[in-house]
DNA sequence: AAAGCGGGGTC
DNA sequence: GACCCAGCTTT
C-alpha cells in the first residue's frame, strides 16, 4: 500500500530505526520539547511552543534562544496573548536576539493564526505564514502535527551529506537533501525523527569533530568509510565582510536619553535605536576634537559588514550629521537597560557607563 | 541565484 | 580570524 514502505529492509527503514533507537536513549531535554517517552504515552506538543521555539532558533544557538523562549511564554502564555500585545513590546522583548524581521513576522504570524482560530496543521498551510519557510514549516508540521515530512536544517544537511558523501555544494543540493530525507521519515514517528536528526547533528555528527564511535549511523556512513567526515557538507565560499564607519550620539537630557524607533525596513528594522550618522565605507574624520565629548569607539559585526562606531555625548550633536529616522522618545536612564536596544547600541551605552580603552 | 539580515560561541 | 548556528525574505 505504501510503495516506500513495501520493503522494510530499505536503507531508509534501517536508518530511521537506528536513529530513533538512539534518540529514545539520548534525546536532549529542552523546554519546548515533549520527550520521546512522554510522546509515546500520548502527550501532545504545544503548537505555540513549537512554533515560537522554531522561529527563535533560526540561525540562533539553543543557549542564546532559551532565555528568550522562557521569557516569552511566561509573558505571553498563548498565541492569542502574543497577537493582542503592542507590537513594540514584542520588538523590545526580542532585542539582542538578532534578525529582527523574525520578530516582525512573529507578530504578523500570531495575528493571522489568532484570526484563523488556530494553527494550520499541514506544512503546506504553515509555509504560507510570515516567517515560516521550507525548514520551519516541515519542523512544525512533523513535531506538532506528526506530518510525514522532512525538516532540513543545518544539522540535517551535515548528517545527510556525510552519510551519503554528497560532493555537490550547498545550497545547490538543498532540495535533493529534502527529497532524500523525506524517504526516511517513519510513518509512525515523524516528529521524533525530525528531532532525532537534529539532535544527532548537534551532539554527535558535529561540524569539527564528529564522534563516530557512538554514532548510530556510523556503519552505513560513506564519509566515515572514506575517512573524510569533515569534508562534508561542501559549501560555496563566503564573501569577506567589508568595514563601515560611523558615529552614534548618547543624547542625555535631564534624567533620560534620546532614542527613536527605527524604520520598518533595512538593518535593525523596527528596533529601538540611538541617533546615528550614516555608516560609510571610508573612515570619517572625528566630528569633534578629542575631548570629553568623545567617549570612544565600539566594534560590531553584522551579517555582511563590520562596523566601527565612534561614540559621542550630547554636546557633539551639532557637529554630527545625524540621520532622523522616526519620532524621538526620551527613555529614562533607569529603564534604558531593559528598553530593547539592539546589541550595537547597547555596546555604545556600555562604553559610556563603564568606560574602557578602545 | 544572490544578497540582505544579528548576535554569540567556538576553535 | 573563520566558521557555525532548528533560515527567511527580497531582489
Description:
This protein is α+β, with helices and mostly antiparallel strands and 358 residues long. It folds into two domains: 3-231, Endonuclease III, domain 1; 243-353, Alpha-Beta Complex (Nucleoside Triphosphate Pyrophosphohydrolase). 39% of the residues lie in helices and 12% in strands. It has 14 helices and nine strands. Strands 2, 3, 4 and 9 form a four-stranded antiparallel sheet that branches. A hairpin with a 4-residue loop joins strand 6 (294-301) and strand 7. The longest helix is centred in the first third of the chain and has 16 residues, at 11-26. The chain binds a DNA duplex (11 and 11 nucleotides) through residues 53-65, 96-102, 105, 130-136, 139, 151, 153-156, 171-172, 194-195, 198, 201-202, 207-208, 238-239, 266-269, 300-304, 342-344.
Task: Describe how the helices and strands are arranged.
Blueprint: H1 11-26, H2 36-40, H3 47-56, H4 62-75, H5 79-83, H6 87-94, H7 101-116, H8 123-126, H9 134-145, H10 154-163, H11 174-182, H12 190-203, H13 222-226, E1 243-250, E2 252-253, E3 256-261, E4 272-273, E5 276-277, E6 294-301, E7 306-313, E8 322-323, E9 328-332, H14 343-353
Parallel strand pairs: 1-7
Antiparallel strand pairs: 2-3, 3-4, 3-9, 5-8, 6-7
Helix pairs in contact: 1-12, 3-4, 3-9, 9-12, 10-12
The protein binds a DNA duplex (11 and 11 nucleotides) through α3, α4, α7, α9 and α10.
Amino acid at each position: 500500500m505504501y510503495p516506500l514502505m513495501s520493503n522494510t529492509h530499505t536503507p531508509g527503514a534501517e536508518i530511521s530505526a537506528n536513529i530513533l533507537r538512539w534518540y529514545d536513549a539520548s534525546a536532549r531535554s529542552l523546554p519546548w520539547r515533549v520527550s520521546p517517552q512522554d510522546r509515546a504515552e500520548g502527550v501532545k506538543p504545544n503548537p505555540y511552543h513549537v512554533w515560537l521555539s522554531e522561529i527563535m532558533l533560526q540561525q540562533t544557538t539553543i543557549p542564546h534562544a532559551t532565555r528568550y523562549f522562557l521569557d516569552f511564554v511566561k509573558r505571553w502564555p498563548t498565541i492569542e496573548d502574543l497577537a493582542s500585545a503592542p507590537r513594540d513590546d514584542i520588538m523590545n522583548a526580542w532585542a539582542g536576539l538578532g534578525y529582527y524581521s523574525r520578530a516582525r513576522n512573529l507578530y504578523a504570524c500570531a495575528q493571522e493564526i489568532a484570526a484563523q482560530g488556530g494553527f494550520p496543521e499541514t506544512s503546506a498551510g504553515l509555509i504560507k505564514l510570515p516567517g515560516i519557510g521550507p525548514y520551519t514549516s516541515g519542523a512544525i508540521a512533523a513535531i506538532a502535527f506528526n506530518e510525514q515530512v522532512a525538516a532540513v536544517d543545518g544539522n540535517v544537511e551535515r548528517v545527510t551529506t556525510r552519510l551519503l558523501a554528497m560532493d555537490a555544494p550547498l545550497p545547490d543540493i538543498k532540495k535533493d537533501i529534502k527529497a532524500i530525507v523525506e524517504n526516511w521519515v517513519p510513518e509512525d514517528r515523524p516528529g521524533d525523527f525530525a528531532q532525532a536528526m537534529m539532535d544527532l547533528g548537534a551532539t554527535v555528527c558535529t561540524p569539527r569533530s564528529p564522534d563516530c564511535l557512538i554514532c548510530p549511523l556510523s556503519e552505513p556512513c560513506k564519509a566515515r568509510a572514506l575517512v573524510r567526515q569533515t569534508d562534508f557538507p561542501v559549501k560555496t565560499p563566503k564573501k569577506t565582510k567589508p568595514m563601515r564607519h560611523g558615529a552614534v550620539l548618547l543624547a542625555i537630557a535631564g534624567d533620560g536619553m534620546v532614542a527613536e524607533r527605527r524604520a520598518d525596513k533595512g538593518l535593525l528594522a523596527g528596533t529601538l535605536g540611538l541617533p546615528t550618522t550614516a555608516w560609510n565605507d571610508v573612515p570619517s574624520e572625528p566630528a569633534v576634537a578629542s575631548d570629553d565629548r568623545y567617549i570612544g569607539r565600539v566594534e560590531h559585526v553584522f551579517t555582511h559588514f563590520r562596523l566601527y562606531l565612534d561614540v559621542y555625548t550630547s554636546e557633539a550633536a551639532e557637529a554630527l550629521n545625524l540621520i532622523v529616522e522616526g519620532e524621538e522618545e526620551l527613555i529614562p536612564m533607569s529603564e534604558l537597560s531593559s528598553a530593547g536596544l539592539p546589541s550595537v547600541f547597547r555596546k555604545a551605552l556600555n562604553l559610556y557607563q563603564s568606560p574602557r580603552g578602545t
